[in-house]
Automatic annotation (TrEMBL):
Residues 9-146 form the Retropepsin-like aspartic endopeptidase domain. It comes from Pseudomonas leptonychotis. This is ATP-dependent zinc protease. It comes from the Bacteria. The keyword Ligase does not apply. InterPro entries: Asp_endopeptidase, Peptidase_aspartic_dom_sf. The lineage of its organism: Bacteria, Pseudomonadati, Pseudomonadota, Gammaproteobacteria, Pseudomonadales. GO terms for biological process: proteolysis. Keywords: Hydrolase, Protease. It holds the Pfam family Zn_protease.
């Protein structure tokens, strides 16, 4: 059997940070069937900053006790996404740093309403490839839970 020493191992669910958005300790579900990652957002408003397209949105943190967190990020694109139920919707795409364990790298997220879903963040296959991660679906929360001190790139 081949081994892949350069790849980090993660479980089906992991704790992450989004330091550029000022968000720490988010539970993310790993979704290898999705190409793009997504983040639960509402009140999404596009705007221009210095001639560049940006977007403002409210991110929702937590499942039992929800906190709202207002964010701004540069808009990368608008993408048509086909959901698992077959519906296609247009979503804003942002790119922000993601911290998982000891790794940090830029990840593209689509912004969408996930209020009926258990996990507010899904990590898709592109994020896993870029982060050089291998998923063991028999495990959960393999990497350490991030802390406020881990917000190295926070604004």
């Amino acid at each position: 059997m081949k081994t892949f020493d350069q790849l980090g191992v993660i479980g089906l669910r992991e704790w992450i940070n989004l330091p550029e958005l000022g968000m720490v300790g988010l539970r993310a579900k790993i979704d290898t069937g999705a190409s793009t990652s997504c983040l639960h957002a509402s009140d999404i408003q596009p705007f221009d900053r210095d001639g560049e397209p940006w977007v403002r949105f409210t991110a929702h943190i937590g499942t039992l006790v929800q906190r709202r967190h207002r964010c701004e990020a540069q808009l990368v694109s608008v993408k048509s996404i086909k959901s698992s139920n077959g519906h296609t919707q247009s979503r804003y795409v942002i790119r922000t740093l993601l911290t998982l364990g000891e790794r940090e790298w830029p990840v593209e997220f689509t912004l969408t309403c996930r209020k009926t879903m258990r996990y507010r963040v899904l990590l898709g296959s592109k994020a896993l490839v870029d982060g050089q991660l291998l998923v063991n679906p028999a495990l959960t929360y393999v990497q350490n839970k991030p802390t406020l001190a881990d917000l190295s790139g926070a604004q």
